[in-house]
Specification:
Radius of gyration: 23 Å
Shape: globular
Helix content: 25-40%
Number of strands: 16
Distance between the termini: 15 Å
Order of helices and strands: HEEEHHHEEHEEHEHEHEHEEEHEEHHEH
Length: about 375
């Protein structure tokens, strides 16, 4: 991490020790971001940081950390929303969550969850119980989005002839496929906010990769198990991670071969951005060589950005509740069929899908990742 920070040497200054007369300005309060490394305090130029970490920078009227300063008109709007929208949305959102929890609890009564390598889920359920879980989940997820101000969702479905061709790329309709080979094993999406999950639940009700702690959360834990989530300990660097990767690959392959198996919903960037960029893709979704279904999410905004970066979760939810209307635009691309070269090279497969999504969604390709995001957040938070 220290070696990466040295790349910013052109924009950093080492703060003076207390009482150092050779730095008369050291007594002034410096509003620039700080990051402590050992005994040194590194001071960054915010403009330089925003250039380097552009994929994570918020641009709405609430500022980088979502803390203003706000103009008078915005304070008045926030005050009105606090009195009217916030309590109403909080109560309705909690009610929807509780109702769906009860539905999941009833549908899983007397059922034994599937267990494998610390994974536990109810995605194997079939018949009327599974139908109720899926259909109610889709309906109530859309209801939750409506409560949060997403009254309309603009969805665009691209047909193969409308999509530009990359080298080695095969899209649905270009070649004849059997029924099994036509079926995508995973949905691939860019990642902007926790709201992405609500949209995909309302659209296709897939399984997600989630932190292991999610399974222990009240209400949400059971719902995640009904979704068939694959749990991962993100801090773990042991062989456990390989086990999770294997589970994901098996799930993708099962969804490709069996129409009753839930599709995997994967965010190959591995973290969220501000919605204008597309980070490098991890290869986990592409290892089993099955076709994938790319989906591009966008959140147009004027005042508050639904992107979840550089802002605390509680503050983000609060400001989202205060936004009178929110918008989602979705671009559904055709099923992407890997070429023989892509099947043998998951990195090539991932990069070609990424380039296609960037081109169709007018997204900027960025080479930074989660490590740089942590540096940026650490600097902002001092």
């Amino acid at each position: 991490m220290e070696s990466e920070l040295k790349d910013l040497s052109a924009s950093k200054q080492i703060s003076a020790e207390p009482g150092d007369e050779s730095h008369p300005e050291s007594s002034r309060k410096d509003e620039r971001p700080l990051l402590k490394i050992g005994s040194e305090t590194v001071v960054y130029d915010l403009a330089e940081m925003e250039k380097k970490y552009a994929a994570y920078v918020r641009h709405d009227i609430y500022g980088t950390m979502g803390q203003g300063p706000f103009p008078l008109i915005e304070k008045l709007l926030l005050g009105f929303a606090i009195v009217t929208l916030v309590p109403l949305r909080f109560v309705l959102g909690l009610l929807i969550l509780f109702v769906y929890y009860l539905i999941c609890r009833l549908c899983t009564l007397f059922s034994v969850p599937f267990r494998e390598e610390e994974q536990e889920d109810y995605a194997h359920l079939t018949g009327i119980r599974r139908t109720v879980i899926v259909q109610c989940g889709r309906l109530l997820s859309r209801a939750m989005l409506f409560v949060l101000g997403f009254y309309w969702i603009k969805e665009t479905y691209r047909i193969p002839d409308q999509v530009g061709s990359n080298s080695g790329e095969k899209l649905a309709g270009e070649n004849e496929h059997t029924e099994v080979s036509d079926r995508p094993g995973a949905i691939i999406s860019n990642h902007i906010s926790y709201l992405d999950i609500l949209y995909h639940m309302s659209s296709s009700f897939p399984s997600f990769v989630a932190k292991r702690s999610v399974a222990r959360l009240p209400l949400v834990g059971l719902i995640s198990k009904c979704l068939g989530c694959v749990y991962v300990q993100r801090e773990s660097k042991t062989l456990d991670f390989k086990g999770v990767s294997g589970v994901v690959t098996e799930r993708v392959q099962a969804a490709h071969q069996n129409k009753l198996a839930p599709k995997m919903m994967l965010f190959p960037e591995g973290t969220t951005t501000n919605g204008d960029f597309l980070l490098p893709f991890k290869t986990g979704a592409f290892l089993c060589k099955a076709p994938v279904l790319p989906v591009i999410l966008q959140y147009p905004y004027e005042r508050f950005s639904p992107a979840w970066d550089t802002i605390s979760g509680i503050r983000h939810v609060f400001l989202l509740f205060c936004q009178f209307v929110n918008y989602i635009e979705v671009i559904h691309l055709p099923v992407y069929y890997p070429s023989p070269e892509e099947k043998e090279d998951p990195k090539l497969y991932a990069n070609n899908v990424r380039k296609l999504m960037a081109s169709e969604g007018n997204l900027i390709l960025s080479d930074i990742g989660l490590a740089e995001k942590r540096i940026y957040h650490s600097a902002l938070n001092g």
